[in-house]
Input
Amino acid sequence: MTQPQRKARKVAVVGVSLSDCGRVDEATPYALHAQAARRALADSGLTREVVDGFASAGLGTLAPIEVAEYLGLQPTWVDSTSVGGSTWEVMAAHAADAIAAGHANAVLLVYGSTARADIKAGRRTGNLSFGARGPLQFEVPYGHSLIAKYAMAARRHMIEYGTTIEQLASVAVQARANAALNPDAMFRDPITVEDVLSGPMIADPFTKLHCCIRSDGGAAVLLAAEEYVRDCRTPPVWILGTGEHVSHTTMSEWPDFTVSPAAVSGKLAFARAGVRPEEVDVAQLYDAFTYMTLVTLEDLGFCKKGEGGAFAEKGRLLVGGDLPVNTDGGGLSAQHPGMRGLLLLVEAVRQLRGEAGARQVRRRDGELPRLAVASGTGGWFCSSGTVVLGRG
Output
């Protein structure tokens, strides 16, 4: 006998939080997970008993089972997808699908890292590559480090479209200007294009300020079915559409260095949300390097391919600009604790709720933003997850 189909439930983000971030020398990654989780639950007004889904990656031998145990949770839905910085947008997509289908009611996404503190204390060293096994064995012996891959892609874009180093530098300058409005940002002093260009060379064409900072910190996001919204402390931010895509690991399998997987994940997310890029009020984009911001703007459809440099250099990315991007200062100036994707969702939700303080974005009519997009990137443009969120 055919069973009647259940109507898909709407899904909302009902709680968000950061753990302590920046310079956190005395906490463990587990403690940062717990701190962020407690704060997100408090933000939602719900109790831990409603949480029946859990998603985490990057910590523990049996991630996320160890973290769930540490938090005292025994979920009946779990996700440990790990695709780099886009992990959290992809997990949010999976969680939203599970809740909509009735496989879970409330899913907690949590992340925490002491990447900075571990290096300072000598517990680990900086990573030059992700390893030398599998397909990567054909690149690592030649010194093809993570940052070199991004640098090569940026140089390709410069050659192909005439993008200038000054245009790339302007992305860092605007991120720092936004960070100046964020009391929790690690670096808030203003910088100029000349400051970026004159810094020490890391990987041509990237100088130091083209590259993200290294911080400690974590975040948590709680998603819940629509029937839980009435019990929440804060207004809901709805998941309107999501998309995910993986592209390559080896550079030889990347068809075009100037196109990121956001070109696919973004198109899917906007189509499923039923909105157009030009309707978006604020964007949170993964920015481990300035080029990531520029090419993601193009691939999400905010400007045409090859026009990202001209789009970014005119101050459009500032809190008061045409398309405010990385309003907390991004990974270039605010926080970057390893995998930053979950922090993008936190900032997007805070902007839609009107909780961003001095960096709060307003529409031209003075109203709060109605639509936001969070797009994470993993590896060296290997994966992308895009989430479109709406208020009201």
User: Anything to note?
Assistant: The chain has a mean pLDDT of 94. The two ends are 39 Å apart (CA to CA).
